[in-house]
Design a protein that fits this description.
Largest sheet: 10 strands, mixed
Low-confidence stretches: 1-22
Structural class: alpha/beta
Number of helices: 15
CATH superfamily of the largest domain: Periplasmic binding protein-like II
Radius of gyration: 23 Å
GO molecular function: metal ion binding
Family: Belongs to the bacterial solute-binding protein 1 family.
InterPro entries: Ferric-bd
Organism: Motilimonas pumila
Order of helices and strands: HEHEHEHEHEEHHHEHHEEHHEHHH
CATH architecture of the largest domain: 3-Layer(aba) Sandwich
Shape: globular
Number of strands: 10
Protein name: Fe(3+) ABC transporter substrate-binding protein
Number of domains: 2
CATH class of the largest domain: Alpha Beta
Length: about 325
């Protein structure tokens, strides 16, 4: 009888232990794509033993969090730009956290002052120029895109895409609302066609002779150079880092936030710290041609080949604060029409 009791107690201990292990998980809602995120999460699980459950979506995750409310299983949200991070804050769907490791790994410029969002990578908003028709433009500025000499030569995606909204917001920060509107009117007057497509479609348009200048994030150059069909597009342009003679190139982010009702908060914070540290930062750099947010982590060889650049040092929180004004200006100048 004593042996039976001991055996039962031992079995109960095993079951309890197994349940504890099973409970070690974290749930992520991700705007970022599986090819990048899944290997990083697998490495986190390998090192921590914490299982990561991920929901991927191009849109609708904010609305999903709103619907789910306190019953949401989500612990973290991975975002693709400062606009989405700000939207989560504005709708009170995230909560602040204090972490010495996050503060150490992520420069203050790339953190929310209220600790509700944290950048994980940075990406530049580049200007691609036709290699044969214009060549390299080392002294080009964003302001120059409104110059009449570029009339009919510029291609871009929708002005209301978050990447362009952030750029317009930065122009408001640097020049004020009136000057930013004047600049937008100038850029619109210089468009070769109605805004359309994604960033790579603009480089394709340069390759096809539709325009000579295209706006696009830096990592799309890496993606094109690793796609057999798109290599000719990439080889037809030079990648330029605007405003190198003054304030520096506009930088956006991918980020992470802790949800308001995170059921696995401790594990979520562990994952946030992992994503900001060396292993994950290097994976971001190598897999998606982004710039690590943690200082000292090397960029990929391909990204390094594009050269060093000076980035705009204005705080992203200040840029994010101008998002609504930027959207208003885009409507006023009828940029996408």
């Amino acid at each position: 009888m004593k042996k039976l009791v001991l055996a039962t107690l031992a079995l109960g201990s095993v079951i309890t232990s197994a349940s504890a292990v099973a409970a070690e998980e974290v749930n992520v809602y991700s705007y970022r794509q599986p090819f990048l995120i899944e290997p990083i999460m697998a490495k986190f699980t390998e090192q921590s033993g914490v299982k990561v459950n991920i929901v991927f979506a191009k849109k609708g995750l904010v609305e999903r969090l709103e619907r789910e409310g306190k019953l949401s299983p989500a612990d973290l949200v991975l975002t693709t730009d400062i606009s989405r991070s700000l939207e989560l804050v504005e709708k009170e769907l995230v909560q602040p956290i204090q972490s010495e490791e996050l503060e150490s790994n992520i420069p203050a410029q790339y953190r929310d002052p209220a600790d509700q969002w944290f950048a994980l990578t940075t990406r530049t908003r580049n200007v691609y120029s036709a290699k044969e028709r214009l060549g390299k433009l080392p002294e080009l500025s964003y302001e120059d895109l409104a110059d009449a000499k570029y009339k009919g030569k510029i291609c871009t995606r929708s002005g209301k895409h978050p990447y362009n909204v952030a750029l317009v917001s930065s122009m408001i920060v640097h020049h004020g609302e009136a000057k930013a509107k004047e600049w937008l009117e100038g850029v619109k007057a210089n468009l070769a066609r109605k805004p359309q497509g994604n960033d790579r479609a603009q480089v394709k348009a340069v390759y096809e002779g539709v325009c000579d200048i295209a706006l696009g994030n830096n990592y799309y150059m890496g993606k094109m150079l690793n796609d057999e069909k798109q290599i000719p597009w990439a080889n037809s342009v030079e990648i330029n880092f605007p405003n190198q003679t003054n304030r520096g190139t506009h930088v956006n982010i991918s980020g992470v936030s802790l949800t308001k009702y995170a059921p696995n908060k401790a594990n979520a914070v562990k994952l946030m710290e992992f994503l900001s540290d060396d292993v994950a930062q290097q994976m971001y750099a190598e897999v998606n041609y982004e710039y690590p947010v943690k200082q000292g982590v090397a960029v990929s060889k391909l990204v390094s080949s594009w050269g060093e650049f000076k980035s705009d040092t204005v705080a992203l929180a200040d840029i994010a604060a101008q998002r609504k004004t930027a959207l208003k200006l885009l409507d006023e100048v009828k940029f996408d029409l």
